[in-house]
Amino acid sequence: MATPTPTRSPELRRDPVTNRWVVFSPARAKRPSDFKSKSSENPNHNSSSCPFCIGNEHQCAPEIFRVPNEPNWKHRVIENLYPALSRNLEYPIGQNGDSSIDLGGWGRVVPGFGLHDVVIETPVHSVQLSDLSPSELGDVLIAYKRRIEQIKGFDSIKYVQVFKNHGASAGASLSHSHSQILSLPVVPPSVSARIGSMKEYFNQTGKCSLCEVQSKDVLINETSQFISLAPFAASFPFEIWIIPRDHSSHFDELDNEKAVDLGGLLKLMLRKMSLQLNNPPFNFMIHTSPLQLTNSELRYSHWFLQIVPQLTGVGGFELGSGCYINPVFPEDAAKLLREVNVPIEG
């Protein structure tokens, strides 16, 4: 059983992708092998009143598309019934594409226009994302791609965030397996910081920071198209990144073959995480690039998928400093996840 070196000292690590400092403090944790979710997420299997179940489509907000386009669908993309932003607002585009209002020293305001969609990943209430086959999971990923391609037709949309909340404590309001797509008229600061950090690395080395990632000690699994690893400066214990081997700036460049490959690796990571950590609540986010990039920015921007199991809370230090404290070194997390034996499905 893997354990950290007893004399290991705390470290501060800077991530060249996110430009974030992380404090690794093994004294704050049990052995990594003892790191489990306090209670596993057991979804409520009551489908009689669930609006996402097949047969209850009339309870949902308007549908954008379904696959296949017939009553016995496999997944649906719909508008969010309780959207964070409004798709019905007028969004005037000013000079240089800027429609914000300057409030002097108090900041800027833009109209709350945006698109907030839901991807229902399966028609069956009891089926979770990790239960799907690699091909079926690949179809869900292609649904994300298809919707992003539609959203690119809105000139005012600058960034598209795909994310999934699994479990109530991770932010999921319904237990039926689903993910969300939120499209913004601005580029969020964390995205700008990530692109800026990747630019800094490129200017120093002439190479993309994710193409050059050193994965030997933090590698978990790999396929012909993708690698999964515990990032060198992981902000959270047992955080996982899945990275395309080939340089790619935008998630929607994904083709069908790569979608199935990614689906298989994502399924494996979710199952390993569930087995090792007692089926924790989790979030995953697809970190793609802003929709409008220059040719020079394309050289160093590289998309990836991040999975964060919800094992620790965020406290005042993290909120105040922007630095995170991680009690598990990525090398230890990666070793444990590599060694998880996932049963072969029949």
UniProtKB/TrEMBL annotation:
Residues at which Zn(2+) binds: C50, C53, H125, H176
Boundaries of every Galactose-1-phosphate uridyl transferase N-terminal domain copy: 9-188
Database matches in SUPFAM superfamilies: HIT-like (SSF54197)
Record Pfam families: GalP_UDP_transf (PF01087)
One BP annotation, GO: galactose metabolic process
Needed cofactors: Zn(2+)
Region annotation (Disordered) ranges: 23-47
Catalytic site positions: H178
Protein name: Galactose-1-phosphate uridylyltransferase
Originating organism: Theobroma cacao
Keywords: Carbohydrate metabolism, Metal-binding, Nucleotidyltransferase, Transferase, Zinc
Record's cofactor remark: Binds 1 zinc ion per subunit.
GO molecular function, one term: zinc ion binding
